[in-house]
Amino acid sequence: MSISPEPIIYGVIFIAVLAIIEGIYLLFFGSSVRANRKVNRRLEMLDKTGGNREEVLEVLRKEMQQHMTAQKVPLYSLLADKAQKAAIAFTPQQLLLLMVGLSMVVFLALTIATESSAPLRAVLSVGIGVGAIYFWVNKKAKKRMSMIEEQLPDAVELMVRSLRVGHPFSSAIQIVSREVADPLGSEFGVIADENAYGRDLGEALKDMAERIGLQDLRFLAVAVTIQQQSGGNLAEILAGLAGVIRARFRLFRRVKAITAEAQWSGMFLSGFPVAALIAINLMDPNYYDEVMDHPFFIPACFAVAAFLGLNLFVMRKLVDIKV
Q1: Could you give the CA distance from residue 26 to residue 75 in angstroms, rounded to a whole number?
Q2: Separation of alpha carbons 16 and 105, rounded Å
Q3: Which letter does DSSP use for residue 73 in this model?
Q4: Which of 43, 132, 212, 265 is 20 to 30 A from 100 via CA?
Q5: How far apart are CA 180 and CA 169, in angstroms?
């Protein structure tokens, strides 16, 4: 019995491409990544530039806006929002070049390791090159958003304590930018620097909330804007907001735990037919030879793939509970 190694080769190449992406990222930006694990990146940059806030602000704002300005690029529009939330240091041009380069590497690897036709190798190369970049960026975005959600209640409570001891709100923002670690520390540091150069705090907070896309940050921006227009005890408002954010965070984690079984069930139901297909081809590569020439074989494959994708979409929507 002959075993076809091609499905295994495809998987190994995809994993290798992910490792190459991470390796390239660490090669170019490894020092800043290691620094971010220990300190606030903005403070590190200020220390290196001798306290030049204007220069650091310009660099950070450029990094924060570079991906959204490239949304009109057809291929990159699928990636821009995720790259923005992940704060990927690669520029859009570098990411696009990385996609092209990885696709060429994958095509070469498939040519050497498999006997598939050239059109199939080309389609697989583009799919693996682009898909690996998207998978990697999406993973980074989820990790960063999770960290921001976890840091935000502590940051708001730190503002409350600062306000209650008599500091103005602008000073409370500066304290958060110094005391809170990244990624939230640098985000608030940009707001503090923008305010120092004349930008309204409510407007800066709203811009950050829209850029990150986090509902709790929108609540914070709205609370500050309303207090600026109508007055009131901002410390009490933010204390209530911190309690609401913590309660939402706990509820979200609880909902996530309850729906985990349904999520994994959906993934299993969609992944099992693919795994079974790969297993059958490994154990008996000639299993489908008698039906591959049937006119309904290819349409049936597309129909099965469509139903599997629809199953994933429906199961995800069923467990996508807004908190």
Answers
A1: 24
A2: 11
A3: S
A4: 212
A5: 16
Give the count of beta carbons closer than 10 Å to the beta carbon of residue 63: 16
Nearest to 321 by CA among 243, 244, 241, 254: 254
Alpha helices (H) along the chain = 6-36, 41-48, 53-65, 80-86, 92-113, 118-164, 169-179, 184-196, 201-212, 215-230, 234-283, 297-319
The secondary structure of 183-243 as a DSSP string is THHHHHHHHHHHHHTT--HHHHHHHHHHHHT-HHHHHHHHHHHHHHHH---HHHHHHHHHH
- Domain borders along the chain are 6-231, 250-323
Residue 1: DSSP 8-state: -
158/179 Cα distance (integer angstroms): 9
**Helix axes of 118-164 and 234-283: crossing angle, nearest 10 degrees:** 160
Token representation of residue 210: 């829209």
Report the distance separating Cα 240 and Cα 160, nearest Å: 10
User: Which tens digits make up the pLDDT trace of 70-80?
Assistant: 777 766 777 88
Q: Which of 96, 69, 79, 97 is nearest to 135 (CA)?
A: 79
